[in-house]
Design goal:
By secondary structure, this protein is mainly α. It contains four helices and no strands.
């Protein structure tokens, strides 16, 4: 098979798949769809959670520090335990904030890149249709 024949076959298979017709043995059905609005909605929820949690998670930090130092100064072991608890909470909260930011950024990027890919496919398909009339 020559390059031109193989290229023509691959283009035809791709066009068949783009038109929703199963290609190849066994065919198949589309079960995965990317809807940019849904991705953006989930990303926005993650961003909203980030901002709310960032505001609410650390409001007691200064008071906890003061209380733990005061308890330590008075000879209570609960002062260091309180500080350890606060430090653990802060680390876990920062991990959650990082995850929310990552989810938001990833879904925003995915929605934007999907839209760009769709535009590129439409452009390429349109060019293929124009080429079809000249070959």
């Amino acid at each position: 098979m020559s390059f031109d024949e193989e290229w023509r076959q691959l283009r035809n298979e791709a066009a068949t798949r783009l038109n929703g017709v199963p290609a190849g043995p066994g065919g198949g059905t589309d079960d995965y769809k990317v809807v940019s609005a849904e991705l953006k909605a989930v990303g926005n929820e993650a961003q909203e959670l980030f901002h709310r949690f960032e505001r609410d998670a650390f409001h007691a930090g200064a008071q906890t520090d003061t209380a733990s130092k005061s308890l330590d100064a008075d000879g209570f072991l609960t002062g260091s335990a309180m500080w350890t608890m606060w430090d653990t909470w802060r680390g876990q909260a920062e991990t959650l904030l990082s995850a929310c930011a990552h989810i938001h950024n990833h879904l925003e990027y995915t929605a934007a890149s999907h839209a760009g890919n769709e535009e590129q496919l439409i452009t390429n398909f349109s060019i293929a249709m124009i080429d079809k009339h000249f070959t």
